[in-house]
């Protein structure tokens, strides 16, 4: 029997810091410190701790904290055939920074489930609502070099089919919300509107659970903070893609808000959708006060109905320290509580 959701249910975008005994902290792509069975158990223990941190903080929709993956895109791709991780090329990710990435050398396929066992494990630990994040098709192709399909669109459709297989099994495992991370939706506007949203809808085809898309300005790493400085005083990127997302079958839209230059009225463009409003900055170690969180939520309430407002973080918290991340989770829940009480009293 699952608990019903309160008004303004809180959640995180997905990733949380890993314990230092599992992987080097405050680092992306941090290598595991264990191997074999020990690593499997280490990941499960970390997942349990991460879940407990969320529960103790008062987070309503919990996740695995992405404790079993090294990176939100790479780990999924590692499990697919058709991609050669030895054959690496340097590409420019999101028109922003160079990275050495693996190469698509043949037809891509999911030979076995990727995260389904992990999701079952999480499901056994809690009766509360559970959200699971997967990379979106467009973000996957942006993190690869392709010598086989030679078409971004074609490869995205292949990945959409693969993601759909995985999503159906995650739903079967008891996941309540499946979220696709599509930071590239803030960069390649023509592609998003031509085929990106269509590919995303292919990925959620036939699902009965709720579905979400997360679109952000990235982790608080230098390449992203430098890029943000070039975007000017008003970040209107969401304006390019929200109208089409509003008309799509996606149930929830997760967006960056607090400390960003996103004009809050852009939320109006997805009116009717549930909106995961980022009220926690993941690019700063400064802990938001509950009142600051409440303030962001009150502003958002002008453009989203209260029953559709889901307080959230701006992005994943993997690169933060565990102490900072925990304090931010507490602030998020406390801020949501303030506004919940205000709404109840109104
Ligand atoms: Zn993000």
Automatic annotation (TrEMBL):
Tagged with keyword Lipid metabolism: no
Domain Cobalamin-independent methionine synthase MetE C-terminal/archaeal, first and last residues per copy: 8-333
InterPro entries given in the database record: Met_Synth_C/arc, Met_Synthase_cat, UROD/MetE-like_sf
E.C. no: 2.1.1.13
One Pfam family in the UniProt entry: Meth_synt_2
SUPFAM superfamilies: UROD/MetE-like (SSF51726)
GO terms, molecular function: methionine synthase activity
Record keywords, A-Z: Metal-binding, Methyltransferase, Transferase, Zinc
Cofactor or coenzyme needed: Zn(2+)
Enzyme class: transferase
GO BP of this protein: methylation
UniProt-listed NCBIfam families: PRK09121.1 (NF006589)
Name listed for the protein in its UniProt record: Methionine synthase
Lineage: Bacteria, Pseudomonadati, Pseudomonadota, Alphaproteobacteria, Sphingomonadales
